[in-house]
Amino acid sequence: MESLRIFVVEDDAFFGEMLKYHLSLNQDNEVHLFKTGSDCIKNLYRMPSLVSLDYSLPDMSGLEVMRRIKKELLDIPVVIVSGQEDVSTAVNLLREGAYDYFVKDEDVKDRLWNVIKKIRENLSLKREIIQLKEEIGQKYEFRNSIKGTSTPMKQLFSLMEKATRSNITVSISGETGTGKELVAKAIHYNSLRSNHPFVAVNVSAIPSELIESEMFGHEKGSFTGAITRKIGKFELAQNGTLFLDEIGEMDMHMQSKLLRVIQERELQRVGGNQTIKIDIRLIVATNRNLTEEVQKGNFREDLYYRLLGLPIELPPLRDRGNDSIILAKYFVDEFCQENNIPKLQISEAAQQKLMQYSFPGNVRELKAVIELAAVLTDHNTIEEKHIRYNSTNASSHFLLEENTLEEYTRKIIRFYLDKYNENVVLVAKKLNIGKSTIYRMIKENRL
Amino acid sequence: MNSTNSTYNLTRLKAFVGDDPDVIANMVQVFLKSANDLIGQLIEGEAQHNTEKIYHAVHALKPSLDIFGIDDMHQPVRELEKLAQENTDVVLLEPLLQQLITRTQHFLKQLQVDFNT
Question: A66, A41 in Cβ contact below 8 A?
Fold first, then answer.
């Protein structure tokens, strides 16, 4: 049970002692009795969890004491316990920020117990929230949430760190399954806005007729079915981060509304007149090529430049060299832990099979492949036969990119260099080409 | 301990602090000292025609009288408190004031006897 430090401020010695004794009956309460307002104020450094305050004190009024308490400890609940039975006094004190107002009678003890119970519950919830926030912060720390040591990932970490230091809009691009939302969350939880909400919206999942109301909210009665006021995603993300996934799917009408809100930093709910100031960090993501979409006339050019901010391109898994093995081992460990099964190893042959695959579904696909392999294995090692790919176009995916032969050559050599830790001699041997070819390409900056 | 002739009633006090006789006796001691001081202030206030002093003493005495079950004084105490707060001439307060002082002194004497103080 939460321990509470309670200040009882009461000049009537009998009533004060009685309250002190009564509240001390619960040994989790540490009760201090003060006979004057100034004694209470002098002791505020002891950080009470609750102040029970008499309204009529010899040195100053209860209202004045409460104001001084609120000035020093804004969130501390102050309960007025008074002989004043005048309703207007009670109303004034409640308006000034009193947590509650009790008349000194036999019921005061039950009322105080109820307040203490609520405060204890609130404190417990607050501690839980702080703990959860710390856990989330740790979970989304770059190195904990995003695995990889390849050159493209090192470049990604560097860009992400830059993104956390400012409020610049971040535009994340990358193939499906590369972890765009994970990167957005990691930026948020490592930024100065981490104590505020992270709100994610998948633009493509919201029907076009509802998107305006989802994003900006609506007032009660603003359209058929608007039976209550709804707070939109922008407002929900106030002081935090709004992540708009699949931004390339947004229709032109909504694009113009979004542009206005981003420019003005304010919005009006659908059917409302009130202008609401918005302070958010925006992160957008797409797997489409927005430059091409602008050229095709599907995406507003002015919005494109507004959203571009700091562009972060997530590398596909096939360009991340040995990262697929690092990730595979991580997913195996995670799976074993979550399912309470003994730790599994991945055989060399299984690792080779993973390295040779192009993973069109990227990290998401790798995770699914590994989880299936962990289920299929009968022993403590995942073998080659347990690695099964569902993607029918696995080998052809690479070819579907329609690169030039030179580009394919570059990609293949780059892939092997990453895989074999930049060992040119070994890569030349594996690919059966001359090492001078590779050195020449490096020298000419083509790799 | 409840007086047989119903001068006071400890039920509400016990609801606050429990049945332990030592604790009850301790609370009674604290109350007797505090109440005697307040009666002194009432008498002084009457003599000095000081309604503010009377108001503060009545205001402080009021909840304690309720706790000790002095229910016959519930209304007169509140009336006196209101009149004193409104700065009513002390002459007009005297009947209620005397009633309160007499009743409280009687009750305090009873407590002193019952608790051997």
Answer: no
